[in-house]
Amino acid sequence: xxxxxxxxxxxxxxxYSSARSEFQGEAQVMLDANENSLGSAGPAEFNRYPDPxxxxxxxxxxxxxxxxxxxxxLSNGSDEVIDLLVRLVGVPGRDSLVITPPTFGMYEVAAxxxxxxxxxxxxxxxxxLTAEAVQQILxxxxxxxxxxxxxxxxxxALLAAxxxxxxxxxxxxxxxxxxYADFANQPSWTTRLGEFPHLVVxxxxxxxxxxxxxxxxxxxxxxxxxxxxxxxxxxxxxSENTQRLALAALADTTRFEAMRQELLAGRxxxxxxxxxxxxxxxxxxxxxxxxxTRFRPDAGAVYQYxxxxxxxxxxxxxxxxxxxxxxxxxxxxxxxxxxxxxxEFSA
Length: 347
Ligand SMILES: *Cc1c(COP(=O)(O)O)cnc(C)c1O
Hints:
Its EC number is 2.6.1.9. This protein has 347 residues and is α/β, with parallel strands linked by helices.
């Protein structure tokens, strides 16, 4: 039962009822929300509060994802929903969550901020869960496990059988963070929501959609769980500007698909070029829009050289990623500039 996972104070609380959730629609005279009826300072009109439930965006998004609008939660970037999920089930100072390092850093930040203990179950050298790791997760009484697949910063998707084993045996929320799902070869876990009421799938507009600047994250889950998220969010957590731009993007799936294909082709090109460089020791398999690459003898020197050429890449801080750089796939010209600089460094 999802209800048993929810913190008692959240179950008991009465959510804030905003003016816009009490009256929906448009009237001749709107004097209910202390807005400025005259208009807006600046070039664009944003004088009205946005739809607190972002229904238009959800209605456009749901069919694309094979879910109902009531199974969709939208947030101020995935960062917001990661924090809300931790707060929804984790009692500060008492509960714990599981992460599988090396992985995305925000889960640990949300845990620290909310005084939730972190249980670390390390991935193996191929950045997969071992049988023992799966058993360790199943044996935990943590309230959430975060599984990032495809994983950041490693790039690989976790094996479906392992995620399924966690879904079958773990009693807390299973959050599968699919920020990079659009670059992956396997089906999204949204296709399995009907089987697992404690599954939450996270996606984002920040990567394949090319909209990191508007801050829009998506969570998909059972209607019951999404309803709880709606109770605890800030009333107007997604701005009018963001909602409008997301709607426009969702109407432009041709551009989305063209960019997605170009980034996938760029990844293949970059991988082939990197493989031919003597300073490249290993390129980890990627289902994402980046390549985790191990350099020899000194990734730090490569990083500094690239910086001196005006090229910024990421140096993952996790111990298991020692000697690696995380290279985002860019435009054709950016990819070529990166390879040219690496070739110069090699010479
Ligand atoms: C980039 C990324 C996100 C997206 O975060 P936003 O707050 O939506 O920009 C989420 N999870 C992972 C693992 C990421 O790498």
